[in-house]
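Complex record, two chains
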Amino acid sequence: MELLVEGPQGPAAAYAYTGGKAFDAALPCVVFVHGALHDHSDWTLLARWCAHHGHGVLAVDLPGHGRSGGAPLASVEALAEWLLALLDAAGVERATLVGHSMGSLIALEAAARAPQRVRALVMIGTAYPMKVSDALLSTAREAPLRAIDMVNAFSHSGIAAKPSFPGPGTWLHGADRALMRRLQADQTALNLFHHDFSVCDRYSGGLQAAPGVACPVTFILGARDQMTLAKHTGEFAQALRAQVRRVNAGHALMSEAPDAVLAALRCALA
Amino acid sequence: MAAPRSLQFDTLSLHAGQRPDPVTGARAVPIYFTTSFVFRDADHAAALFNMERGGHVYSRISNPTNAVLEERVAALEGGVGAIATASGQAALHLAVATIAGAGSHIVASRALYGGSHNLLSYPLPRFGIETTFVAPRDLAAWKKAIRPNTRFLFGETLGNPGLDVLDIPSVAAIAHEHGLPLMVDSTFTTPWLMKPFDHGADLLFHSATKFLSGHGTVIGGVLVDSGRFDWHAAHARHGRFGELAQPYDGFHGMVFSEESTVGAFLLRARREGLRDFGACMSPHTAWLILQGIETLPLRMARHIENTRKVVAFLAAHPMVAGVAYPELESHLSHALARQLLPRGCGSVFSFDLRGSRKQGVAFIEALKIFSHLANVGDCRSLVIHPASTTHFRMDDAALAQAGITAGTIRLSIGLEDADDLIDDLRRALKIAEKAGA
């Protein structure tokens, strides 16, 4: 689904995957927000399930990612404003926001800025602060393809996760690597890997945003996540009064444990 | 935190795509001999059919044993995923059927396995799919053959029968310049000798019957996607790939390139190709091929070591007019082989025996260790005399056009002691010499 979304540089085309059904703004809306150097295809199974179980679904490509136009936005705050503008463009008054990693911070910030518009907040593979090591940032700047391999190895908890994503026969490490390489190559204006990881690293508004969130919050965390460590989630979860659900996966939760994430999401949507 | 390293080839050969069975603890890959998989409830069933959940439904479309093989080959090739098929021929057909239809066109290397050549030349035109064959080294011919309805370019990493090394970087560049993918048959090289995706190929397949299985026991194929070709962008530019970038009535109006940014090809190949054409692999076959892949690095090293010794012996023998092996400076692909195949050029090659067809037959019949049969890539050494078998209907002129002489012998070097292989060849060459007297 193509939308025209107001951004800091004016309106730009934005893409949202609607889960295999035409989007209906009258249905309870679930918005999925991907993480750094990813796109809507992270959400295929969850989005299809929601779309075929009574929800209107918008799995967005963030500006400058995948099929969405415009320049990548420089901060979590700017991306949160863009997300709210996307709701306007889609004619959505209230929605459940579901974000992964960087996307979880964007969803949080949007929920804090417009609490009346967010029915529930689901933060997957989240942590605060979402600091990125100097080594990874410098590798991202100088050798992004090597940095992609580093992140890929960090993000997967094992050498096989069944039944794989989106289905059997997919080599998850290879699919994630190919997706990140595609997004990196397609964004010719800047080094998207370095940009996105810098956005995560710079975000300092998490604890300030927390009191502004009025809706129920769920954390879905990978028990073996090496990217967003458990030691960075306790205080954060407390500040958001979040219900914490852990699944047996690394940072790539939606592909390593899609059924467990769906089960946790269904509880949050109930 | 120390940066993790990606696992390397030998480790992936043993582990990729598998974890110990969570129910039984089985360490080796179990064979899931079941046609179908029980749904937990009606909603689970509907969700599996509608791709709201991942999982297995029916073994024609996917099976847990096959999935290990698929992930393992994809891991070794650097791809996003794979599909196991009933044979290498079925893998080629599945690729064609996924992105081509009546009115489509393919550009293919002329130096192809006979089975591939047959499929492209005879049955596919009957279904409205034409192929233009080009000399693999003639880059201008590849470019010139591309038409508005061309769907992909196709060649073999090591072409039949002369082992022309496909200039993958150059042919891929031509394909991409025209918004097309390049597919290669990687059977002769295996990912141990070359990873075509690293050089620009977009799709590849194996006859897993050969080196991947390695023991001459089963027939199977594997089709692998690099995930690098952007079907959505290519369709937007040229309108060629509606199969992947437009709603498909056969699967709930699914647009495969929306569902998966990097896996659209495999989604359609599985959801349509396996479902509707049905050329799936048996789980038992998948298991046997997995057994082979576990030792692929060890076997390939030995195949190459033995081949180099046999090639050196034959190249120096007075009864041998020539040996077509790209590691030899005399071979037209020698420079390209050094660039693309530094670990070796496989263990299948041809040589020309001096003399008549009768002497060729005498040579073959005198061999004791080499088995006379129509296969390659076995752990046992194999031999065939094309002029008296696969090409026996051709006269000498027709053979010459196919790059074959009356004395051409094709060998597939196995894992025996190289000295025993050389002794066998030496004795048979002596008998062939006497047969010409």
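Note: Chain B touches chain A through 54 residues (CB under 8 Å).
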